[in-house]
Design goal:
Helices cover 33% and strands 19% of the residues. The chain has 16 helices and 18 strands.
């Protein structure tokens, strides 16, 4: 087998931030024109372009099932195109094909104009295959927070969530459940069940009383206002909190793309070590990923055996990937033929279209001095939205350094799968979509086919009553167990 080139040096700027914002809040003009209807042939052209691009760019479309299953879905969608449609319905038609990839980095990007639309007035919690009302945004809704949700406007919640999950991308059930705990649920409900100006919810209260309650609706601006933190400084990320009385430090890391993350780490670990802190909890909940080099910077402070986050990866050779590489080369060098710049470039340009080339990322030469590293007890807190680079960090520290993990199953598969999505646009309706172009592989070039996330050493259960009251039950349980165990 060909020897692989190094990814360091002129490295592809490897960002494995999840592009999971398949739906974004839109802005509705004061006077909105009726949605444009796209003719049948235009929709078929878009579908063909989508399917061909997936096959050309994605490293392993058959990892979660046979290619025949995807082809059957493509033919099914093709046969369902019989009349002109607006963008909303095109999204609903195409999304199941992307969902079957079971790859959260590959998705349609859809903007729904909902500023003026009545939205479902609750945040939800998914726990043990049940759905609960976490927070209500109207007076009627707030009064029943903490209840189990059974149905909305006559639609059983199992029916609703199953319909939504069929169009959601993602590898794991945990990831999809946590996606529906965000505003994705509110947006998808408007898309799938657009008939309701108000909401009647059938619930089972904490006192085990079953009843139906009218809860009204809420607008986007009202949700945003209600969520404004009382203390903006406490809501930021990255964030370090020191509790000297308990000899505890808590990192809250919601993403890995801060401009001065290196500086934050340097200053934070200096403060932690000077204070003689014995326990460090890293809260990775709702961290959807980011720059892998930032994750490796963090590992350097935590491990005496630093290693790359992704030791070996496979790249699907395509014209689109080559164009992406060119964009990341500084302009002053871009006029040079790329194949002259490093061995990886030569292999990439010489490889046949559609083949996979493999690239190794060598380990750092040496660890940070012990005086700079944290030498106390470390724990991680994760959930279903611990994804991509953040999930890989959890798996890396758990396996190689014995760090204990608390919380809920992560959203990204334990050994990772696909990343580095390339962005495309459907030729007719202009909807954007993203397709992964790289995959994480073992030293024998095999890929992990399991569709489970990182499993915590200490799985926790949400305390529904505490969450409905605004408390962070997972953090409370984690701190109690972590500090007691040391």
């Amino acid at each position: 087998m060909d020897k692989t080139g190094s990814i360091r040096g002129l490295r592809i700027f490897l960002i494995i931030v999840v592009i999971f914002s398949l739906t974004t809040w839109g802005t509705t003009p004061a006077s909105q024109n009726p949605p444009r209807l796209w003719p049948v042939e235009a929709i078929r052209t878009d579908l063909d372009f989508l399917w061909q691009t997936i096959q050309k760019v994605h490293p392993r479309i058959d990892h979660a099932g046979s290619k025949e299953i995807l082809e059957a879905e493509y033919r099914k969608i093709h046969g369902a195109i019989s009349e002109a449609m607006d963008t909303d319905h095109i999204y609903l038609l195409f999304a199941p094909l992307m969902s079957l990839l079971q790859d959260g980095h590959s998705s349609l990007v859809f903007t729904m104009q909902i500023d003026k639309q009545p939205l479902f007035p609750f945040d939800l919690l998914f726990s043990r295959e049940k759905v609960y009302l976490k927070r209500g945004y109207t007076v009627q809704a707030a009064a029943i927070a903490g209840s189990r949700l059974m149905a909305i406007n006559g639609h059983e919640i199992d029916e609703v969530s199953t319909a939504m999950k069929s169009i959601l991308p993602g590898e794991t059930v945990s990831m999809k459940n946590h996606s529906l705990e965000t505003d994705m649920f509110k947006i998808y409900y408007r898309l799938l069940f657009p008939e309701a100006p108000s909401f009647y919810v059938r619930i089972i209260t904490p006192a085990e009383e079953e009843k139906t309650v009218e809860c009204g609706s809420i607008r986007r601006a009202e949700i945003q206002e209600a969520r404004k933190p009382a203390n903006a400084a406490e809501a930021g990320s990255p964030q370090l909190r020191l509790d000297r009385e308990r000899s505890l430090a808590v990192f809250t890391l919601k993403k890995f793309d801060e401009k001065d993350f290196k500086g934050f780490l340097r200053d934070s670990f200096k403060r932690i070590n000077e204070a003689g802190i014995a326990h460090l909890l890293i809260d990775l909940r709702d961290n959807l990923g980011g720059d892998s080099e930032m994750v490796e910077e963090l590992i350097d402070y935590l491990s005496e055996h630093p290693s790359p986050l992704i030791p070996r990866m496979g790249i699907r050779v395509s014209e689109a990937f080559k164009n992406q590489v060119k964009k990341r080369i500084p302009g002053v060098f871009r006029w040079l033929p790329l194949q002259y710049l490093d061995s990886r470039g030569r292999r990439l340009w010489q490889a046949e279209e559609g083949t996979i080339i493999y690239v190794d990322d060598p380990a750092p030469e040496k660890a940070k001095p012990a005086a700079d590293r944290f030498l106390g007890q470390i724990a991680l807190l994760i959930n279903g939205h611990t994804y991509s680079a953040a999930s890989l960090l959890a798996q890396r520290l758990k396996i190689q350094d014995g760090v204990k993990v608390y919380g809920l199953e992560s959203g990204f598969t334990a050994d990772g799968l696909f990343f580095e999505p390339l962005v495309f646009q459907l030729p007719s309706c202009r909807m954007e979509f993203r397709v992964s172009s790289m995959m994480i592989v073992g030293q024998d070039n095999s890929i992990h086919d399991g569709l489970r996330g990182v499993i915590p050493d200490f799985p926790l259960e949400l305390d529904i009553a505490a969450e409905a009251a605004g408390r962070d039950s997972l953090l409370e349980q984690t701190l109690q167990m972590f500090l007691k165990s040391n």
